Each structure stands twice: as structure tokens, then as C-alpha cells.
Amino acid sequence: MARLQHRARKPMLRRLLDCILKICQTCGALKPSDPAHSIAADRSGDGEVTSWFFIVAGLLACGGTGNAASCPVVMNPPAVVVEYNGNITVSCWLLAEDAIGMGWESTAGGTGLMKNIDKVTLQIKSVVDWALSPRCYVKMADGSQCDVVLPVTVYKSMHSVSLHMFQSSPMLEDNHYSVRCEITSVAPARNLTVYLHKGNKLLQAEPILESNPRPVHKVSVMNVAVDRNDDGAQIWCEAKLTFPQVGLYLPAVRSGSQRLSVEYPPTFIHPENETLEVAARSKLHLNCTAEGKPPPDYTWRDLQSGQNLNEKGSTLAPSFHLQGTYSCTASNIHGIRTKYFTIRETAGNHPTMLVVIIVITIIVVRALLGSGLAICIFCQRRGHFQPTPSGIV
């Protein structure tokens, strides 16, 4: 009796396995050359156990729907992502022996009940239903009926992406500002992610939460921090529709760019105070160049006399100088910065200067004495030399 029951189960098992093999070939999980094909012809007891293993593995490999455990069908493909007005073709395979028939129930492409078949195909040439939800159903011999819903996602790429800044006036460094990215006519928004870029740097990525499957208009508000290095940088956003469950990643749609204008207080290129040792009467050049936006104004002051100097630029090169401290102030509407220069004369250079003066004096005296002596000798020879009294005239 056991042998008869075993033989009765064999045709159904082979048919079920053949069905799974066909489906897995279609979805790419199994190739005709794979060893599983030889299992289908195995008629031993061990072959039956192994065949059941491959049936379960085949169902998992083809990714059947979650309801397939309670309803004996499997779909290929198990889920569909289609562009609006696009077409789809989906096969539903029957895995039961005691079924009267099967069919597709759908707002488009429905087949009605079809008897004595083990596969029914849904074909829709133009998908225009945003909430399309086809069902593959099976009517069993006992009058019961079950169905499995085919997950369908209908998408439409966004019409446009635009960027708007809430700040109309120039930005100030170390502050945060709001940026609005607008995406028009996109579906489904739940698969949308918005990205904010500053130059080549990604600042933020924000997924959109939306349950409506139809095209919608979405706004994403994000914050951006700026500093002086961002002045002149380009800021822009982009939006992407992605469907990782089927490996579909649509090209990003990018907004136009906007140029950031960031203002900041002055900062000296060389911020530290300076002490300069210079030789007397040597050239002097003081530099307190600062970076700022708007460009800073400069004020120089002699702290010894307490007076402002006439120089209005970033450098000071006086024709003469005294020992002491000078201040340079750089200022704009956002801040004031001051730097100090202390000047000291180098004492070691004074003897050298004195020697130079003495040498020059000796040369001049000798030249004058030599000229006077020659004139006297010349006058004596001519007889015109007359001594002049040294008294008061």
C-alpha cells in the first residue's frame, strides 16, 4: 500500500518540480545545464527528498510573493516597476494538482477564469492606473479560492527641480541658512531622495515620506552652514527616484546653481604682532594686509605721539622713523581688528656709521687744504701774495 501511495505522489512531484525549473529558468535562477535537471528524472526515494529540497530552493530563488505559501502560485517577475504608459508582462504559475482553473483579476489585462492550465499571463500594453494591483487567483476543486497580489509600482520622473534661498541679502559667516528644493510632478514620492550639494561636497540627503502613489509636488527644506571659504561657491540640489527592490536607479534631475555671497570681518594675513630691529635711517616697510568682505579700511597710529598718521592703505613706509610702537586697525561693517608693530634701532650699526662720517670728513679737509696750499704757492711766485690781518676789521 505504501509503495502505491509513493507511486501516486511521483507524477505530481515531477510536474511540480518541472514547473519550478521552468520558472527559475525564466527568472535566471537556474540554467538548463544545472544538475537540478537530472533530479527531476530521479525515481528513487532519495530523489524525492532531494526534489522537494529543490522545489523550496527554487521558490526562494525566484523570490515569490509572501502569499505564495497559502496560495499555490508563483509569479515571474515577482514584482514590477513600470513607467506610466509603459507595458508589463507577468506570468503566474500553478503549483497544485487539485485546482479547477486560474486567472488574473485586474483593472487592465484581466483574463477571467481559465481552466485546465498551469500558467496564465498578464499583459498590459499601457499602464495608466497609478494604483494598479493585479491579482493572480486560483479556484480549487473544493470550491475555495485564493489569490496573490502582484506588487506594481508605477513611476513618473519629476518634471523639474528648483532651488530657492530664503536669504536674499548677503550671508554672514558662521551662520545657518535655509534652502528650499522644489520637485514638481513626481511619482511615487516615497521612492524619492533629495540631495543638497555645495560645490563638489554633498551636504545632506533627505528621503521623502509620502504615501500617495500619484504625481505630487514636494518641497524639501534643508539647512546649510557657511563660512568665508564658501564665498563664491555654487550650491545646488538634485532629486533621484530609486527602486532597489528591482535594481532600478533612474538618472538624477538637477536644479540650477546659485552662487553664495558670504561676508565676514577682517582677518590679518599675518595676525601676530611684529617687533622689527632696523638700522638708523634705513628704509622701513610695515604690512598689515587683512582679508575681509566688504574690503576693510585701514587706520595707522603712532602710539608715542598719540596721533593718527595720514596713511590709509594696508602698508606703511615712512620716510623717517623713530623707535616706538605703531598700531594698524582694519575694519569693516562686521568687525574691527588691530595689529601692533614695535620698532627698535639696532645699536651695533652706529660705530660703522661714525667711521664712515669721519673718513668722509678727512677726505674733504684734505682736499680743501690741498687746494689752498697750491693757490698760495702760485700767488707767491707771481708776487701778488699779500697777507691779510687777522684782527677785526
Q: What's the structural blueprint in terms of helices and strands?
A:
Elements (H helix, E strand, L loop, with lengths): L1 H26 L8 H5 L4 H18 L10 E4 L3 E4 L4 E7 L4 E7 L8 E2 L3 E6 L10 E6 L4 E5 L2 E4 L4 E6 L5 E2 L2 E12 L5 E7 L2 E7 L8 E11 L7 E10 L4 E2 L3 E2 L3 E2 L2 E7 L5 E5 L7 E2 L2 E4 L3 E6 L4 E2 L6 E2 L7 E9 L2 E11 L4 H33 L11
Parallel strand pairs: 2-9, 11-20, 21-28
Antiparallel strand pairs: 1-3, 3-6, 4-5, 4-7, 7-8, 10-12, 12-15, 13-14, 13-16, 16-17, 16-18, 16-19, 20-23, 22-26, 24-25, 24-27, 27-28
Helix pairs in contact: 1-3
Describe this structure in words.
With 393 residues, the protein is of the alpha+beta class. It folds into three domains: 2-153, Immunoglobulins (Immunoglobulin-like); 160-260, Immunoglobulins (Immunoglobulin-like, Sandwich), CATH 2.60.40.10; 265-348, Immunoglobulin-like (Sandwich), CATH 2.60.40.10. Helices cover 21% and strands 39% of the residues. The protein has helices at 2-27, 36-40, 45-62, 350-382, and strands spanning 73-76, 80-83, 88-94, 99-105, 114-115, 119-124, 135-140, 145-149, 152-155, 160-165, 171-172, 175-186, 192-198, 201-207, 216-226, 234-243, 248-249, 253-254, 258-259, 262-268, 274-278, 286-287, 290-293, 297-302, 307-308, 315-316, 324-332, 335-345. Strands 13, 14, 16, 17, 18 and 19 form a six-stranded antiparallel sheet that branches. A hairpin with a 4-residue loop joins strand 24 (297-302) and strand 25. Helix 1 (2-27) packs parallel to helix 3 (45-62). The termini are far apart.
